[in-house]
Amino acid sequence: RKQATEYSTSSSDEEFESKPSLTHKAKRALRKRRKLEKETKQLIKQEELKRLHKAQAVQRQLEELEERQRALEIFGVELERELRGEADSGTKDENQMLHEWFELVMEKNKLMRYESELLIIAQELELEDHQSRLEQKLREKMAMDGKSKGTVCSSPQGQTRP
After folding, report:
1. 3-state secondary structure of 154
2. Cβ neighbours, 10 Å, residue 79
3. Which of 73, 70, 61 is nearest to 117 (CA)?
4. Where is the composition biased (Polar residues) (predicted)?
5. Are 124 and 51 in contact (CB under 8 A)?
């Protein structure tokens, strides 16, 4: 009888010892998951900052481009007046003025292509930002679903249903 008591005590001790190891494993897994979540949030934040800096640079370049286009437009108007003979052309001959006008048109076209490229980059940044926000929402919903599954599936007796 004493052996049976010792046997039952030792078996319950083994069960008791295995439970703390499970909680230790669970705690370790939880810490690992939290660390991973924290690292993920930091990476997301870094990516957002990169996109923000890139967007600011694109915006700055667009503003500089707009100023340059305005200056070219003013110069073009003056050059056209000179070509029509409405303004004093001074010592410039018509061939020189036409050459300047064609260079001006080529510069304007180059700036318009560059502006198109910058607008495409800005649109890409907006799409990347939108994708990042959608992914974050998805992660939050998945985390909420995971938490709610653990609480919804438990029965009043403390047993969990599959």
Report:
1. strand
2. 20
3. 61
4. 1-11, 151-162
5. no
| Residue for token pair 């009888």 | 1
| DSSP state for residue 158 in the 8-state scheme | S
Residue spans of the domains in the chain: they are 36-142
Tell me how far CA of residue 66 lies from CA of 59, 61, 108, 118, in angstroms.
11, 9, 11, 12
Q: What is the pLDDT of residue 155?
A: 47
The reported pLDDT for the residue numbered 52 is 93
DSSP string computed for 75-87: HHHHHHHHHHTSS
- Its pTM surpasses 0.85: no
Helical (H) or strand (E) element with 44: helix 2-84
Q: How far is CA 77 from CA 38, 74, 92, 157, in A?
A: 58, 5, 16, 86
Residue 56 corresponds to which tokens in the numbers above?
Answer: 């600011």
Give the number of other CB atoms < 10 A from CB of residue 83. 16
